[in-house]
Design brief:
About 35% of the residues lie in helices and about 25% in strands. By secondary structure, it is an alpha/beta fold. The chain is elongated and about 75 Å long. Bound molecules: cytidine-5'-triphosphate.
């Protein structure tokens, strides 16, 4: 999560029962390398203590006592300035109302008023308070001033009622934080189309021909592109992975569906990264009913699927904008030669060659050992690294190619 590394985040915690979940958020942000300064309101202190946050951030957590302490005249200004982001999670209806009206009667609201940094609010409240016109109008006011509001989730509320008001899961909050921190990245204003996962070609209503792709490298690329400020469209086959918050997701199963989705989205994209493992062959006929054993061993005739990368790269000739096309080569032998051939025959700008015969790289594992081959003949060997790290490097190279 290098986008969070070294970032200064002020995390305001206000008085909702969801305050205990903010400790998990503070912990995950810290683990990802952010410097997290926590400010608790008086009512938050009734649910959780400063020590909870100090223990997970390794830094002092602030309360209203600090507002009237020795450093008070600079503290609120110091905390709010020179920060990359002010997050208030959970943010109660009361704190929302104060922020909307510019009130500043505790350390958190004083800090928010003094701060120039982007503001992210995660409202959390019980039974109907979120839907109340007063809260909604206050949120509108804050939105108009540029604040980002993460919509609360629907479900069980502490009162026993069911409704809208739950604090979203930590990973979702972190997704929104990443979106804001990435806004001015290398790919700001660019649209990046990423494919991920292995396609599934049906044989009958029950069975499919597929491959071992986990989708991890593609999802990591989508996240890295978004961290760099791009608007991301992720075309994905079914996987167990969670798409990056903010990405537009198009779900497909077959190579044909992926082809249609890519060709539709590609003209508006600045870059296409085909990390998906696309079937080269599919059953020629799909049985309408489940194939039964009694019929004997079936003879399955296959036909070729279309090469999506080649089709998209071919469209570029008419394109008005500069478009970068990136492929992957998953090889078990003659890695670089095969990758170089694919780079040339598919007319790519860049290909990531991946040795799938190694047990620490390729399908189903967390790491990859990739060599990048560029159209101009340059080669770059990356050491063994996580798929996220590899994704960040590939995205940097894509940004350079787009310059
Ligand atoms: N690819 C594609 N459409 C296909 C097959 C592959 O767009 N029908 C893309 C993959 O997403 C990948 C690149 O082409 O980015 C190379 O895929 P790979 O399977 O390594 O190569 P193939 O071209 O399928 O050749 P082969 O299977 O013979 O190695």
């Amino acid at each position: 999560m290098s986008i969070l590394s070294g970032k200064r985040i002020v995390l305001g915690v206000s008085g909702s029962i969801a305050a205990y979940k903010a400790a998990d958020l503070a912990s995950k942000l810290t683990q990802a390398g952010a410097q997290v300064d926590v400010i608790l309101t008086g009512s938050a202190e009734k649910f959780v203590t400063p020590l909870t946050f100090q223990s997970v951030t390794g830094r002092r957590a602030y309360t209203d006592t600090d507002l009237w302490g020795n450093e008070a005249h600079v503290l609120h200004v110091g905390l709010g300035h020179a920060t990359d982001l002010l997050v208030i999670a959970p943010c109660t209806a009361n704190t929302i109302a104060k922020l909307a009206h510019g009130q500043a009667d505790n350390l958190l609201t004083v800090t928010a008023l003094a701060s120039q940094s982007p503001l992210l609010l995660a409202p959390a409240m019980d039974g109907g308070m979120f839907d109340h016109p007063a809260t909604q109008e206050n949120l509108d006011t804050l939105r108009k001033r540029g604040a980002t509001i993460v919509e609360p989730a629907e479900g069980h509320l502490a009162s026993g009622l069911t409704g809208v008001g739950r604090l979203p899961e930590t990973h979702q909050l972190i997704g929104h934080i990443r979106l804001i921190l990435g806004r001015r990245g290398l790919l700001a204003g660019k649209r990046v189309l990423v494919t991920a996962g292995g396609t599934q070609e049906p044989l009958d209503p029950v069975r499919v021909l597929t491959n071992r792709s986990s989708g991890r490298q593609g999802y990591a690329l989508a996240q890295a592109a978004q961290d760099a400020g791009a608007r991301v469209t992720l075309v994905t086959t079914p996987t167990a992975l969670t798409p990056p918050v903010g990405a537009e997701v198009i779900r497909v199963e077959t190579a044909k569906q992926m082809l249609d989705a890519v060709l539709k989205e590609f003209p508006e994209s600045d870059a296409l990264i085909m990390a998906a493992a696309v079937a080269d062959f599919r059953p020629k006929d799909v049985a309408e009913d489940k194939i039964k054993k009694e019929g004997g061993v079936p003879q399955i005739e296959l036909e070729a699927t279309e090469d999506i990368l080649k089709a998209a790269a071919g469209l570029r000739i008419e394109a008005k904008r500069k478009q970068v096309v990136v492929g992957f080569a998953a090889e078990s032998q003659d890695l670089l030669q095969n990758a170089a051939n694919k780079l040339q025959s598919k007319k790519l700008d860049l290909i990531a060659a991946n040795d799938i015969s190694a047990n620490d790289a390729g399908f189903s594992v967390e790491t990859n050992r990739i060599t990048l081959l560029f159209a101009d003949g340059r080669r770059e060997s990356l050491s063994l690294m996580s798929k996220s790290e590899a994704a960040e490097i590939i995205i940097e190279r894509v940004a350079a190619l787009l310059e």
